[in-house]
User: Fold this.
Amino acid sequence: MSHTALIPSHRKPRQSASKTALRAGVAGGVLSTIAVAGAAGPAQAEPVTQTIEMPTITAGLSTTVAASAEATQQVALDLETQASEDAAAATAAKAAKKAKAEAVRKAEAKKKAEAAAKAKAEAAERASRSTERTTLSAPSGSSSSSSSSSGSSVSTASAPASSSATGSAASVVSFVQMQVGDAYVSGGTGPNSWDCSGLVQAAFRTVGVDLPRVSQSQSTAGTQVGLGNLQPGDILYWGGAGSAYHVGVYVGGGQFVGAQNSSTGVVQRPLDYDMPTGAVRVL
Assistant:
């Protein structure tokens, strides 16, 4: 006996008979199961003998389906195009209608503005002359008495006719009448636009008479005459002698020619259209 045999830690444990038998039984059962499965497997498999046939789409049917799809797509495209064109046409028509209405409105507004401006200019012209006639001093001396005595005898001033003018006076009358219809421009001296004193100066220059340029000086450039003793070619003035604000030329028949204002231009009018204050005779 070994000298270590009595030491418990050096002894090999003994396996019991029951454990050995259990292990042997488990191993045998596993092997039996494998054997049974191997024997039963081939007997249960069966070969597949049935074939399933799939339907075949003929060439004609395929072509029909494709054509139908293409036609459907074309119809959809046509409808979309038509809808876009209709929307564009409606938008254009609406814009055109709006533009036309705006143009009509602007034209009417412009017409009204022009009419109002013309009426305002004429009213201002009349008011200005009325005011200046009131504030300016009356002509002195013989011109004053002549003017006061002419109030009831204006009809006698219309006795001479323009056809009765002769010589230089006829030339002056003819010149101013030829300018009727020309424009009025402040400071204008012709040939197609004038102010009042520029027209009178140019008319007398045709017969060799050099008049002053402005109305105030022209109103004292000759001999003062009464409105009841006018002759064609006399210079008419509005305002005081020496302080006149407007001049014209008497052409006979109770009428005068003058460059009035920007609205009327050069016109021929009867004396009662705007009665002058006095007159001077140069010729």
User: Anything to note?
Assistant: The chain has a mean pLDDT of 76. The longest helix spans residues 59-135. The helical segments are 17-44, 59-135, 142-149, 154-157, 167-178, 196-205, 215-218. The CA atoms of residues 53 and 59 lie 18 Å apart.
